[in-house]
Amino acid sequence: MEPSGGSVEAPGRGLRVLVVGGGIAGLGAVQRLCRHPASPHLRVLEATARAGGRIRSERSFGGVVEVGAHWIHGPSQGNPVFQLAAKYGLLGEKELSEENQLVETGGHVGLPSVSFASSGRTVSLELVVELATLFHGLIDRAREFLHAAETPVPSVGEYLKQEVSRHMARWAEDEETKKLKLAVLNSFFNVECCVSGTHSMDLVALAPFGEYTVLPGLDCTFPGGYQGLTNHIMASLPRDTMVFNKPVKTIHWSGSFQEAASPGETFPVLVECEDGARFPAHHVLVTVPLGFLKEHLDTFFEPPLPAEKAEAIRKIGFGTSNKIFLEFEEPFWEPDCQHIQVVWEDTSPLEDTAPELPATWFKKLIGFFVLPSFGSRSCLQEKPHIGRFTPPRTALCCLAGGRLTGSSLCGTHRCNHLGPSSEPSPSSSEPNSAPPVPGGGRTTLFLTDSVQPGLRCGDVHVSRDQLSPVSRLSLESG
Question: What's the pTM value of the predicted model, to 2 decimals?
Fold first, then answer.
């Protein structure tokens, strides 16, 4: 076996287990297998030059910003991620406190510190609380159909819109207030799209919606970066377990394979890599992303998977969550502000529209989360996923849920970017030189999407004219 970039020593006799994919699933699996009494020989084949998958923390600008996974949801004793983080000393006193672990969130995102309408005016927090209470109650009721014999409608989105229409019939306010209330509710719909990883709640089936288990605990972050978790897992593995830059081409299974280094021994599985390297094994664990399986299903397994497994891969859906970071010379938000909600006034969850996404993608943004201050720098953020971050002075990070340009995230982290240019973005090793935005700040858009070969994760520079009024107001305030 001769992987590119150097040789990989063939293991001796004994049980061989290969793990395909070095994200958190693959790392967690191999760490646990290290404790197996059979003492198997373990090897992880990772397509890229780094482990961790979508867990990626940037530290090159005076602080920590998560360009991938961000929170521990439900940080309590029943959460294995929380247990590992506590074991490795990666959390602070507040995150480890019993009080924090006992908080019941119901799986709902916390209320915003302030809410802005797209015209720039402030939305009453009393109104936001009223509508959040309504929406969260409807989400809780949607989960109750888990064991029902039948559901009133097929999807969560249809159920929510049906119930919103019923409540709206009893609203006594003027038309302008009713429209604002619908716009606020639409913001909560967008939040739920981020939580559920979908472009629309109409795509989420109502019957199994309650399967998701909500753990207690107030969502928390890693003070030193989420990547500390994967770094500690990596350090616990035997030497030479990880093999990087080793994308897998085909997994040949249900066969009988041999290798020259082990005469007389046969293996039921052979993993063939794109560079020609071949790894025989007794067992293979496949931990690649669903999007990668969807794209490569016809060639990744030989013979093909059983029909029921292939059908499950094709039918299971998922969406994309994206992060946007906005940077400012000085913060315009109050010192105790943590979450800024954005309400798009001309939207309603009851309107089934299919807008042209290149012109209206920003209406999928749900708001901004304030990042810790980095000395003289300040940041705001929204939610997952990937890219590069320009060193901020002051910044906002915004989350966008759903499908922005098309298909799914690929396991090899190839992605296309939203913008006028079709050229590949610069590699992550090159300096980011986002152009200045009037008002003293800069804005960089990070997108993860699609699996078009040759395209790499990159940044899209959003012009001031593409921003909504509230975003322009924020930039001018900065």
Answer: 0.75
